[in-house]
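Q: What does the assembled structure look like for these inputs?
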Amino acid sequence: MITNKQIKRNNFLTQGVHLLMTQGYHATGVNEIAKAVQVPKGSFYSYFNSKEDFAAETITHYIEPFIQLLKKHIEQSPHDTLAALKNYYEELIITVGKNGYKGGCLLGNMMGEVGDTSELCNQALKSAVERYRLLQYHALIKAQKQGTVRQDRSAEMMANLLVNSWQGALLRMKIEKSVQPLQEFYDTLLGDYFISA
Amino acid sequence: MITNKQIKRNNFLTQGVHLLMTQGYHATGVNEIAKAVQVPKGSFYSYFNSKEDFAAETITHYIEPFIQLLKKHIEQSPHDTLAALKNYYEELIITVGKNGYKGGCLLGNMMGEVGDTSELCNQALKSAVERYRLLQYHALIKAQKQGTVRQDRSAEMMANLLVNSWQGALLRMKIEKSVQPLQEFYDTLLGDYFISA
DNA sequence: TCTTAATAGTTGACCAGTCATCTTTAATTG
DNA sequence: CAATTAAAGATGACTGGTCAACTATTAAGA
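A:
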């Protein structure tokens, strides 16, 4: 039963990612979430203390696959970490595009909607972004040592630019209904600015 | 009477900017908006057709002062448009910081929350972002001709990077409760990457 | 039998939006 | 000019519906 409960809990989080990403926090009801997991609405609070709690956990649940995917790419190209980063983002752009330019990134959406109003979500967002950012930071340092990424700019600064302008590009994608902003992000940074002279 | 109504309408939009920016679309009620303007709730619909309509108009109302401010800076430094851009963003960072890292940018927040679900807001966002982006694009072209901004990169690409990473930096500011991401944005792009060799 | 977990129904509050009623202004008439 | 009427505008109570959260009840397991 412990396992069964954890499976359902996981199911809650997976459905939560989808609902919160496409509709946002305030536009998604607890009832709707429970219905999506085919669990009675009354049971929601036996899995989570509150909707806010649930959202914070969903944020943490969301970022994990992205971290694992990027790690996989880095491990698969141990001698060309820049290529790993490029492959990762290429894959990401295709995946995001398949969703019909809807949703974007749960982290970005939640940062905008509740990042400064919900303390629980703020903490979850802060740690998720930092974990994700650090991974890219270390990848950039590796690539610098490999000579593919320029060494006259700090990996710190480049990692921040990478994370921030990706978020901005996703917002642009949403309103322009095109992956073009994402493609341009890729070309500008990973295809040009970061490249070793 | 025409004037009086238009004044109140303007008041609605100004209060709307504040409420929608700090709380978001779905977390802000029509009742709350009407209360803020000290107008009976029932009267809201004599000023606007719907909440969605109101939000779309608020978006347009929001961006205008920013465009005017940037234009002012550009006109005040006709021979150094890069300096105008830098001054503008310096001023912006101070202003945003004074709000206690809350809110951020209405455009960014609304793009994330309703940019892909409300057609009315989508249109308003699209045109607001484009107007704002174009202004910076033309400023960058001017600065390129003045020799202060590098000419081996397109102003188009730089304008997009400017707009996108500013949005991302604002999201980071929200969750880190610090203007540091904004400052780094400034140093990275306007203080380094865009500068003529 | 006793304990623990699941859940259906309910809670008061609030949502966007409507509408009948009331107030104010304008026009018309004596 | 005053009185009456008609039109226009303002407004608060109300609509059906949904919200997050609680709780009394039922079911299950030991």
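Residues 1, 29-31, 42, 44-45, 50-51 of chain B lie near DNA strand C (CB under 10 Å from a C1').
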